[in-house]
Structures are given as C-alpha cells and as structure tokens.
Amino acid sequence: MTDARFDYSALVPNRPQPHLRSDIQGLRALAIGLVVLYHLWPNRLPGGFVGVDVFFVISGFLITGHLVKAMGAQPSPRLLVDFYARRIRRLAPAAVLVILFVLVASALLLPPTSLAPTGWSALASTLFSQNWYLASQSVSYLETASQPSALQHFWSLSVEEQFYIVWPLLLIGAALVAQWRRRPVRPVVVTTIIALGALSLAWSLIHTAIDPDVAFFDTTSRAWQFAVGGAIALLPGRFRVPSLLAWVGVACIALATFLFSDSTAFPGTAALLPTFGAGLVIAARSPEDETWSWAFASRFGPVRWLGDVSYSAYLWHWPMIVLLPVALGHALDTRAKAAIIVATLILAGLSQRFVEQPLRNITWLTARRRRSFLAGATAAVVLAVGSIGSVGVSAAATANENAALIAKVTNGDSCYAAAAVGNPDCSNPFGRLDRAHLPESLADKPLAWQDDCIDDITQNTEKLCQLGDPAGTETVLLWGDSHAGAWSSAFDIAGKINHWRVIVAARNKCPSSLVAPDATAWGEKLPDDQQGWCASRNAWVLKTVVPRADRVVLANLWANYVFDDGRGDQAVGYERVVKSSQKLGRDVTVMQHVPLTGRTLEAKVWGPDCLAKQDPASCSNPIASAYPPSTSAVFREMRADGFGPTVRYIADADRFCDDSRCYSAIGGVSVYFDGSHLSNTYSTSLGPWLATKLRSKTPLDQADIG
Questions:
Q1: Which residues are paired to 589 by β-bridges?
Q2: 363: region left, alpha or beta (phi > 0 left; psi from -120 to 50 alpha)
Q3: Taking 90 as the threshold, does the pLDDT of residue 455 lie above it?
Q4: What is the distance in angstroms between the CA of the first residue and the CA of the last residue of the chain?
Q5: Which residue has the higher pLDDT, 146 or 92?
Q6: 10 pLDDT exceeds 60?
Q7: Of 151, 284, 286, 414, which one is least surrounded by beta carbons within 10 A?
Q8: Is the per-residue pLDDT at 139 higher than 70?
Q9: DSSP assigned state of 619
Q10: Is the pLDDT of residue 12 over 70?
Q11: What gap in Å lies between CA 670 and CA 425, rounded to an integer?
C-alpha cells in the first residue's frame, strides 16, 4: 500500500523562482497597456483586446505552478481551502470596491430608468458569471450596439474565477488517480493538462466558426489558453528556450494587436498568435542581467510597477471610459482620454497600496481560513443587495414613467409626441424636441425589451409578450423581427383602448417568414444555425400561437432581408405565413416600414445621438431615402401574387413625415431609441392612432405602397 502523502513538488522543476519575475511583470504591463489603449483608441490599436489573452496565459502558468508546488506540502482538501481563501483575499477587495463605485456613480449620474442594466451587470460580476451574461446578449445585434455596461469588462475576471474554481479540482483529481493506480504522477498531470487544452482548443475552433459572438465569452473556448500557461509551468528543468524567443513572443502579440480587429472571428485560430506569443515570453525565462533581453527591459521601475498594479488598472479604467462621458455630457476627446489614463494609474496605485496589499495579508483574515470565506460571502451579499436594489429602483421608475406617458398620450388634447401629428390645435410637430426629456441613447426601449420578452436567434425559445387588455374579447398577434418588438408599446395601448389581448412574437433578425433569410440587404451572411433556429421559431409560432389569435399583424424591417441569395420571389416566405394563417380563418394585416434614418439600411443615423448634438430639424431624412423602393418591394410582390384583396395594410408614413422629409424628433420627443427602432415614448404615443388603424379594413391592393 502506498503512502497517502505524495511529494507533488516533483511535478515542478527545482529551480530558483524569484517572487516576481521581471519578464512576467513586463508581460503584465504590456497586456494592460494594450487593453487600456485599445478601449480608448480602438481604431489605433484594433486588436488590443488580445491583452486579455496574455493575462489568461499568465494566470494558467502561475496558478498551475503554485498548485503543484503546494500539493507536496499539505493534504489535498486543505490545499483547496487554502487556495480558495487566498484567491478571495487577492481578488475580492479591489473588485468589490470597483463594483460599489459603479453602483453609486451610476445612481448619481444615470436616470433611474437606466439603472437596471448596471444592476444586472453588477450581480453577474459578483457571481463570477459576467461572461455568460454578456454571451446571452451578444447575438442580439441591438445589444452589441448598445450602451456598454460600466462593469462588462468583468467578463474576463469571471472566466478567470471559473478557471480558479475548476482547475485545482482537475489537477488534484489527476494526481490522486495516478497515485491510486500507482502510476507516475507527473506524466498523468501533464497529460491531463495537454488533453484538456487540446479539447478546449478544438471546441474553440468549432464554436468560433459556428457562433463567434458567444465563443468570445465562453470559458470552455478559452480554457486552452490557461492550459498553455499550465503546460509551460510543468516543463522539465533541463528544457531551455532561447531567451531571444521572448522578443519573438512579444512580436507575435504586437502583430495580433495591429492585424486583428472587432471583425476578427475570435478566439478560434486567431487567438493562437497572442496565446503562443505570451507562452514564448514565459518559457524563454530571459535573464535580467542579459542586456537587451526582455527581462532586462522589464526590470525598470515604471514597467515593474505597471505590472504590479495591472489588476487594479484593469478594474478601474473601463468604468471611467463609460461613465465620464455621461458626467461630461459629451463624447471623450483627447484631453479626457489622457485624463482617464492618469486617473487609472493613480487609482490603480492607491488600490494596490491601500486595498489589495493590506487585505491580502491582514492577520485577522489569514489567522483562520473561514474568515476569508465569511468576508467574501458578506461582500457578495452586500453587492447582491445593491445590484437588485438598482434593478428594483429602475423597474419602479420605469413603471411610473410609463404610467405618466400613457396618461399623457391618451389625453385627447395632447400635443405630445405622435399625438401632435395631424392635430390642428398643435403647432408643426416635425423637428421639434424638448431636450430636457431627451433620454440617453438606448435608454427608451419599448415594452418588449423592458419585459425581456423579445427573442434572440439562440436555439429555440418560446418567449412571448402578453400585453393589451388581459380580459379582452379578441386576441391580436403581432409577429415579426425586432421592429415588431419596437411596435409593442403602441400595440399595448391600442389593445387597452380596443379591449383586445395582444401577443407579441418578436425575434431579432428573424422576420415573420416561413423561409429564413440567409443574408441582410447589405451582405451580412446569417449562419446556418441561426437560419435553422429562425425557421423553427416561426414554425412554432404558426402552429402554437396563431391558433390562439383572432387576427395576425406582421411587422418587419421588410427591406432588410435577402432570401435564397436574392434569387426568385423574395416574398414567398411571407406569403406562406399569410396563406397558412388565412387557412386557419385569421385576418392578416401587414404594416408599412418605419422610415429609414440614413441613405441606406446600413448607414443608420442614431436618433438620440444626433438630436443631442444637432438641431432637431437636421436629424431628418428625405422621403426618397427614408422610403426607397426596397421598403415596399415585398408588398408589390404580394399584390402581384394575388394577395392584395385579402391582406389588410396599415400605412404609417404620415406619422413620421411631412411632405418632404421624415424626422427623428416629433412632438418634442425622440422617435427612435437607436438608428431604426421606435422609442418607447414614441411607440406608446402611437397607440391611440394604431387603435383606430387596426379597426380599418384597407386592403393591400387599394393602398398606396409607393
């Protein structure tokens, strides 16, 4: 029978290891510099995000080396407890401080209705799940263009924390299995690391090819980068990499910084370059006393100091980038960006000196391990309460504003928003804006977003909005893409006025067609899996939801989609929906496009941003650009195919345009919350008009569709 205590220290070469290697501190300094400069000047360093990948490799190297050394000094269960306690003391203090700062600063700077995203993001960061929180939104083309959260940079810390939780269990498990089977421990642990890294890399390549937006945040698609560092930590002592190769590694990282951009499918094969570049730097172990070596260049005070404070610098820089423009009331200019760099360095130094170091070594915490866990749990509870409180405040404020808005727009003599259009008692509503009530960009989303009932193209879900009058005698189904979601607030009011129940089946980038689009009008290809999920979702709506409705209303950004690579009849999928719905005895109505805001579908003008900087009348679009022939092409095809007499049509151009132009500001409010979707305010204000229009019976073949 073998001795239960095994000398795991044999796993790591017995060679001098300074507490802080200069070459690694220099690598940390390089990584944080790239990340900060990329976030401030993304066009100058388009691939600077690879600094995060460098951090992953460093973490894998240091944590693996630490774990296998510690395994020789104490039993495995105690090792785990000690390891996790140290991680709490090392990472939690500065992170808790930054999260608290963001919660307080957001409450002071942002309107109450805009606090919910910050609250949810803070909760996800506290629970080490920010990466999955962002992954759940990343496939939404609305969310990727949305105002970033001041805490979304915690995604990489969440990935690291998940690694810290799982990795020790895997290494100790491999060592115990080897000991139980009387096998040499070192080869088993090394093989485990290589096998896990290979599996993760293979999955990373597959996942990035299928869904790069989600793969970017996926821990399992990133684990191989930690494994690279871990494998280097277990290299034999006699293994030598020429120190010159450290500069080759730095060159690989630099190359990735300038070759890659936000459009690069990442991680996948692209991540190999910075990952193995970082690995070369670490493996080379360049000596500090060798002139022109990487370690010699990294030994100087400012470089080592930046490496020392890199963790706090990472935590502090992003909240300032997000919140400072709100405080200033304008976008960041060069002086403001320079001020952020200075403030980041100051705050990082102060955090490291007065928060990280003292709490990491404070006697009260280190004397008993359970105190570290108790302190961490207490901090997590405090942050969770603050996060949920922010969400609650936001929900209450939004409900109050919505109630006030409904009362305002349903007032018969109102000149507010769309109620002013066509009202002879109101002055010309077009191009008129009340700046005091101009919301932050993307802060005025309709009910489909407020209620989180709009669906993304992620597998198959059954999200529906239940709006209108819940006791209504008739049910209306609003079915379409995100533009149907943008009409949700209007349909809610119309349903309440007409005493109709309203069901909204809205899915981003998925129009209400039984043929899934394969591309957008400007050439963006939609992946095969997204096409399949879109087709499955619409088939489910037709089979399950349409039979519950008395009438079906289709609303889409009709000109946005290309079917069958543009060949053949582009309306065939919509016609199948119409035919199938009519076969079930349901009336079908199609809604006109909302006006385009730019010269083309892709060249959108973001309404709130334009209105914040320019005269409201300038934030408008000629009718010829707002309603080009492509916006009514589907309706012309449907009429040509004989659907004109049986399909109702709702024209809406007169709610957005005068005789020559269509406007982003009407009746004192912003028409859009982004570059094409109706704001909650304006959508709600269209409710009384829509209630009347939905009762009309104008057939498509008698409508002026342009």
A1: 553, 648
A2: alpha
A3: no
A4: 88
A5: 92
A6: no
A7: 414
A8: no
A9: S
A10: no
A11: 21
Apex 477 CA angle, 471 and 480, nearest 5: 145
Q: Identify the DSSP state of 545.
A: I
154 touches 130 (CB < 8 A): yes
Measured in whole angstroms, how far is the alpha carbon of residue 656 from the centre of its chain?
A: 31
- pLDDT on residue 287: 87
Asked if 680 contacts 447 with a C-beta cutoff of 8 angstroms, the reply is yes
Least trusted range by pLDDT, from 91-100, 134-143, 452-461: 134-143
pLDDT, position 661: 94
Q: What is the pLDDT of residues 167-222, one digit of tens each?
A: 998 988 888 887 777 777 778 888 999 999 999 999 999 999 888 888 999 999 99
The DSSP secondary structure of 413-432, one letter per residue, reads T--SGGGGTT-TTS---BT-
Is the sign of the CA dihedral 321, 324, 325, 326 positive or negative? Answer: positive
CA–CA dist 623, 595 (Å, integer) = 8
Residue 83: is its pLDDT beyond 90?
no
For the residues of 221-267, what is the DSSP string, one character each?
HHHHHHHHHHHHHT--TT----TTHHHHHHHHHHHHHHH--TTS--S
| Spatial CA neighbour of 162 closest among 196, 125, 191, 195 | 125
Instruction: Please indicate whether residue 394 or residue 544 has the higher confidence score (pLDDT).
Output: 544
In angstroms, rounded to a whole number, what is the distance separating the alpha carbons of residues 9 and 67?
Answer: 9
Token digits for 426? 């109101």
Is the CB of residue 172 less than 8 Å from the CB of residue 71?
A: yes
3 state DSSP class of 156: helix
CA–CA distance from 305 to each of 92, 315, 317 (Å)?
21, 16, 16
Higher pLDDT among residues 523 and 145, named by residue? 523
60: left (phi over 0), alpha (psi -120 to 50) or beta: alpha
DSSP-assigned letter for residue 553: E
Q: Does residue 11 surpass a pLDDT of 60?
A: no
Measured over the CA atoms of residue 260, residue 263, residue 267 and residue 270, the dihedral's sign is negative
DSSP assignments along 187-229, one per residue = HHHHHHHHHHHHHHHHHHHHHHHH-HHHHTT-HHHHHHHHHHH
The H or E element spanning position 660 is none
CB neighbour burial string for 348-378, b if at least 16 within 10 angstroms, e if fewer = bbebbeebbeebbeeeebeeebebbeebbee
d(CA 505, CA 510): 10
Query: Looking at residue 541, what DSSP letter applies?
Result: I
As a whole number, mean pLDDT of residues 127-150 equals 71
Question: What is the rounded distance in angstroms from the CA atom of residue 221 to the CA atom of residue 26?
Answer: 26
Mean pLDDT, rounded, of the chain = 87
pLDDT tens, residue by residue, 59-76:
999 999 888 887 765 546
DSSP run (H or E) holding 701: none
The span from the CA of 670 to the CA of 434, in Å, is: 9
Encoding tokens for residue 548? Answer: 């519950």
3-state secondary structure of 234: coil
Q: Evaluate whether 682 touches 671 at the Cβ level (below 8 Å).
A: yes
Q: Is the dihedral of CA 596, 598, 603, 606 positive or negative?
A: negative
- Residue 576 and residue 514 in contact, taking contact as beta carbons nearer than 8 Å: yes
Q: Give the predicted TM-score (pTM) of the model.
A: 0.77
Pair 195, 209: CB distance under 8 Å: no
Q: Dump pLDDT digits (tens) for 350-360.
A: 999 999 888 87
Query: Residue 486 class from Cβ within 10 Å (0-12 exposed, 13-18 middle, 19+ buried)?
Result: buried
Exposure string of 431-442, with b = 16+ CB inside 10 Å and e = fewer, is bbbeeeebbbbb
Strand partners of residue 480: 506, 555
The amino acid at 385: V
Task: Reduce the DSSP state of residue 293 to 3 states and report it.
Answer: coil
Token pair in block for residue 222: 């990133």
Please answer whether residues 138 and 216 qualify as being in contact, where contact means their C-beta atoms are separated by less than 8 angstroms: yes
pLDDT over threshold 50, residue 624:
yes
